[in-house]
Amino acid sequence: MHTSPADSPPRPPRSRTAVRAAWILAACSAVLLCLVAAEWRPLIALDGDISRTTHRWAVEEEGVTRLFRILTDWVWDPWTMRLLCAAVALWLGLRHAAWWTAGWLAATCALGSLLQQALKAAVGRPRPVWPDPVDSAHYAAFPSGHAMTAALVCGLLLWLLHRHGVARAARLAALTAAVVSVAGVGLTRVWLGVHWPSDVVGGWLLGALVVTVAVPLHRRWRTEAPPAARREELPSQRDPAA
Fold first, then answer.
1. Would you state the pLDDT for residue 9?
2. pLDDT at 17
3. What's the farthest any 2 CA atoms get from each other in the chain?
4. Nearest 5 degrees, angle CA 77-CA 109-CA 22?
5. Each residue of 54-80: b (16+ CB within 10 Å) or e?
6. Closest CA to 22 of 155, 211, 220
7. 227: part of which helix (H) or strand (E)?
8. Helices 168-191 and 197-224: crossing angle, nearest 10°?
9. DSSP 3-state assignment of 51?
10. According to the model, what pLDDT value does residue 221 have?
11. pLDDT in tens, 100-155
12. Cβ contacts of residue 163 below 8 Å, gap of 6+?
């Protein structure tokens, strides 16, 4: 007589969804990375067609170009996003003693930046070159650091808002701002002629991938951490009246 081994507890549905999303994003990122590194002709041709069109518009529409330079250099700059992340981490730690979550947030942003720089160095894709440039940028093109950082930071902050039960109206406002920021930063980088469209798509995919990997890791830590560490919660979670 055989006895079946004790089954492990079923994985929660949201965990399975996160794993699937991570695999899909990883596969898409890997395919795009290979196509860019191999200089796949259809992709290169599509990048060139879009970039030439948007650059022509950028030269003709000086007012829009000036606005996009302000947005990309100040509002959606990677350092602006990182400073926002640092401010949220400090708020979590100082205001709510949520130091583990603050450290997780800071570490995820730092690792995302390291991944971005490593891929830039590994791929070494040249940026677009124009006879009449409207902006300039340094380092290699793929992936777009602006696009990746925006997707990463916005994704992490949206998850934190959801996790800590922020009011629905505030979450909708934050979601709108995040969508505008992530889409807008991609548009500005292509419009200003400093990135190919596939650089931006690669940045979006990689930023989303880091989020989908980091969030389940945080959830696992919450279930496996010592009781003293698991008590880290915001007032909305500890006391509904707070």
1. 46
2. 86
3. 81
4. 110
5. bbeebeeeeeebeebbebbeeebbbeb
6. 211
7. helix 227-230
8. 150
9. helix
10. 76
11. 999 999 999 999 999 999 999 999 999 999 999 999 998 999 999 999 999 999 99
12. none
With bands split at pLDDT 50, 70 and 90, how would you rate the model's confidence at 85? Answer: very high
Residues contacting residue 128 through CB under 8 Å, at least 6 positions apart: 51, 55, 141, 193, 194, 195, 196
CA distances from 33 to 36, 93, 99, 124 (A): 5, 37, 35, 11
- Residue-wise pLDDT for 21-61, tens only, equals 999 999 999 999 999 999 999 999 999 999 999 999 999 99
Residue 111 one-letter amino acid: L
**Distance from chain centroid for Cα 162:** 17
Structure tokens at 172: 């909708």
Reported confidence tier of residue 7, pLDDT bands at 50, 70, 90: very low
Own/partner pairs, 115-119, CB within 8 angstroms, 24+ separation = 115/206, 115/210, 116/143, 116/145, 116/148, 116/149, 116/203, 116/206, 117/145, 119/33, 119/143, 119/206
To which residue do tokens 């250099």 refer?
73
